[in-house]
Specification:
Elements: E1 2-6, H1 13-22, E2 26-31, E3 42-45, H2 51-58, E4 65-68, H3 84-104, E5 108-114, H4 143-158, E6 163-169, E7 171-173, H5 179-186, E8 192-193, E9 199-200, E10 202-204, H6 205-218, E11 223-227, E12 233-234, H7 235-246, E13 253-254, H8 256-262, H9 264-272, H10 280-286, H11 295-298
Parallel strand pairs: 1-2, 1-4, 2-3, 4-5, 5-6, 6-11, 7-10, 8-13
Antiparallel strand pairs: 9-12
Amino acid sequence: MRVLLAGATGAIGGPLVAALRAAGHEVLALTRKSTVQVPGARVVVADVLDRDALMRAVDGISADVVIHELTALSKPPAKYADMEVTNTLRTTGTAHLIEVARAVGARRFLTQSMVPGYGYIDHGPRLLTEQDPFGQPRGNKADPVVAAMHSNEQRAFTADGIEGIALRYGAFYGLTGSQGLIVALRAGKLPVPRDGGRVMSWIHLADAAAATVAAMEKGVAGQAYNIVDDEPVTWGQMITEHARVAGTKPPRRLPDWVIRLAAPYFAALMIDTTLRVSNAKARTELGWTPTFPTYREGIDTLRG
């Protein structure tokens, strides 16, 4: 199939282009920068938020699938304001890319969602599944972020003539996904709570890419899939492991109030949110199994 990929230069972009090519698919990489080269892909230059320029850029192009992997996150977001452009990419950007899908003749549309869309709260010890409420307001400052994820999914699911699928990824790690964490560690700017923080579900980028290809080929229209590994882990443990493989000092352990003051958005994830998420549906329906079932197998890949 011919795939138009928005976000080919982001954290998941490189692994996803490689996975698509390995599966025999042709890739058109949508990017804002004319100087960017994407190995294995033909580059299409346009800003997704500029609808008219975007539609001109895809005029005459045909594709079978559009995949939306766009964010504006080059480093871990510290403040809620750091999420604003990404929120827009998940609302206005998604709407524009659905128009693109129609223009290029694509029937399938896959979009990046994330497991924090279940809510920035303590969900307790139970594994969350795709049957649990997603995108509901919780009365906290993360509600606009959750609303953008919900809008993103609903636009994909309800677009006429489009087979929409949402991929609810865990927190990314892997060579490109971990760069921001390692840069912050080296600068001494990535503390963790004294108790290690809450539990999060993670996914190695190579496994996220493989699951995305599987969803494109086998996923059911109108469905969401949790793309996570088998073992949720605390932020403190995961960040400490990043420090170990990167050869940096261990993260500083600070009181919750200090982290909330310095990085209120990141604190909402590390201190307030417990997310243990099941990947059973993706395993069963997509025939996908993570190569790195836990961070223990995947973390040493950061050494390159």
